[in-house]
Amino acid sequence: MLxxxxxxxxxxxxxxxxxxTSSKRIFAPTGGSTDPGHAVQYAKGALDRDDLSPSPTDQxxxxxxxxxxxxxxxxxxxxxxxxSLPSGKVSARTVFMKELDDKGFVIYSNWETSRKAADVASxxxxxLTFWWRELERQVRVEGxxxxxTAEESQVYYDTRIRASRIGAWASPQSKVLDGRExxxxxxxxxxxxxxxxxxxxxxxxxxxxxxxxxVVEFWQGRQSRLHDRFRYTKQExxxxxxxxxxx
Length: 247
Description:
Layout: H1 56-69, E1 77-83, E2 90-100, E3 105-110, H2 115-122, E4 125-132, E5 137-147, H3 150-157, H4 162-170, H5 180-193, E6 206-220, E7 228-234, E8 240-245
Antiparallel strand pairs: 1-2, 1-4, 2-3, 3-6, 4-5, 5-6, 6-7, 7-8
EC number: 1.4.3.5
Coiled coil: 173-200
Keywords: Coiled coil, Flavoprotein, FMN, Oxidoreductase, Pyridoxine biosynthesis
């Protein structure tokens, strides 16, 4: 009588591991989608080449106005990314864009002790990323940076409430503190220094930084991640070349 051969036993430790999500702390979040197991679909708009202005700053101004009119929460919120040389290490933080002019996008900060100050001192290039959730729109900006003059920075500085002007003087931004008490002590010292003085000079280490755009991308979310993307690239003659990008 023939007997079927018994299959050899396999050591469980030798079996190949199949796909597993057991070690993943977060896996494929759906972002509040109403379709279980699938990500949110973007369907609030479209972007065509004919919709665009010849200038990216003009186009940004139009989109920003639309964001304001549409009650986007703090549309001036932007992620500023910088990189240190020679290490190439990148850092990013959320700040406010406070000005837009024909030259570029302006943010204000401490340019003596902060991480971004050290980055741009070694590498005068930066990137900005705006995300307007309510409109499913994104704008990306890349370019070189320049400091505003003290006179230019004073104009914006004077619009801040007094406590914020005092704070700009008092905070050694990004430096290690012994505790909250140290910061409060520094604030008190600055308050005493400018007591009774309404006009406070802008600190020499604080002020505006302008990102002068060389590349600007406008992104409109679409269904199935087939987004509309258009990139403006500055040419040597100062004109802008506009191209559609794959999503």
